[in-house]
């Protein structure tokens, strides 16, 4: 395996919450621990990770859409299938940025809906579906993450209303705070919340607690959380105290 390909796989494993130890990475990639150590030194020199005793850690940061799209696809699809069943024909739906919203868009083909989004991949997925009235929000293009942001996007949202918002996140803190890794996306997400009747957070198991330094909203701004695995007790308690329904992709979490 070429070194460049190994480096990509190491970063993907670390960013998806996978093995961080040298021995685990060695076993997963089928190379010697010495090779992994050399790879980690090179990646640290490039500023892509930080070595720690026995392995490495990586800052999630602002990952390119194409890279994130390949992570935990079955889990995102399970969430997307359930979320799609919540929507009735004729309703208006706001789809946030991110890969889980994109997986949800794939479940909406053939439906009679209005879909509003700043997610360019959602737009591309639904552009040829004549049954869907598609509204693409304006704004400044973030090429790497395939989204539109800025005051133009926020102004568009102030003129619109949606029955549903399906919101993405990079992390949910034990207190129920919804976080994001990218400050520039936060005002758009908040404007989406204000423009919607019902707010549904789509969050796979890796998002508890996940990452993110910027607060998007508190649990009081959510109506439903759809996930693919049981939520830790502290977070679940915070959500339920705020009146949020926690759904385990297919059934109400007990």
UniProtKB/TrEMBL annotation:
The keyword DNA-binding applies. Keywords: DNA-binding, Transcription, Transcription regulation. The keyword Transferase does not apply. The lineage of its organism: Bacteria, Bacillati, Actinomycetota, Actinomycetes, Kitasatosporales. It comes from the Bacteria. This is DeoR family transcriptional regulator. InterPro entries: ArsR-like_HTH, Carb_Metab_HTH_regulators, DeoR-like_C, DeoR_HTH, NagB/RpiA_transferase-like, Tscrpt_reg_HTH_DeoR_CS, Tscrpt_reg_HTH_GntR, WH-like_DNA-bd_sf. Residues 3-58 form the HTH deoR-type domain. It holds the Pfam family DeoRC. One of its GO terms (molecular function) is DNA-binding transcription factor activity. PROSITE patterns: HTH_DEOR_1 (PS00894), HTH_DEOR_2 (PS51000). It comes from Streptomyces aurantiogriseus.
């Amino acid at each position: 395996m070429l070194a460049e390909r190994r480096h990509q796989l190491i970063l993907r494993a670390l960013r998806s919450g996978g093995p961080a130890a040298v021995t685990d990475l060695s076993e997963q990639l089928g190379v010697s621990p010495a090779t992994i150590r050399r790879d980690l030194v090179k990646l640290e020199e490039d500023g892509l990770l930080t070595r720690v005793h026995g392995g490495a850690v990586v800052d999630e940061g602002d990952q390119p859409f194409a890279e994130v799209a390949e992570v935990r696809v079955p889990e995102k699809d399970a969430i997307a299938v359930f979320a799609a069943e919540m929507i009735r024909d004729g309703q208006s739906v706001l789809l946030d940025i991110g890969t889980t919203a994109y997986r949800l868009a794939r479940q909406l083909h053939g439906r009679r809906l209005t879909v509003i989004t700043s997610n360019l991949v959602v737009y591309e997925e639904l552009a040829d579906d004549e049954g869907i009235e598609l509204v693409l929000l304006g704004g400044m293009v973030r090429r790497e993450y395939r989204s539109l942001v800025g005051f133009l996007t926020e102004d568009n949202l102030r003129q619109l209303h949606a029955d549903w918002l399906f919101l993405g996140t990079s992390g949910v803190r034990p207190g129920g705070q919804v976080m994001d890794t990218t400050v520039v996306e936060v005002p758009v997400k908040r404007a989406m919340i204000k423009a919607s009747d019902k707010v549904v957070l789509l969050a796979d198991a890796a998002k508890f607690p996940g990452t993110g330094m910027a607060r998007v909203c508190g649990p009081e701004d959510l109506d439903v959380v759809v996930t693919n695995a049981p939520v830790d007790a502290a977070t679940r308690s915070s959500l339920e105290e705020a009146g949020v329904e926690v759904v385990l992709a297919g059934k109400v979490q007990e």
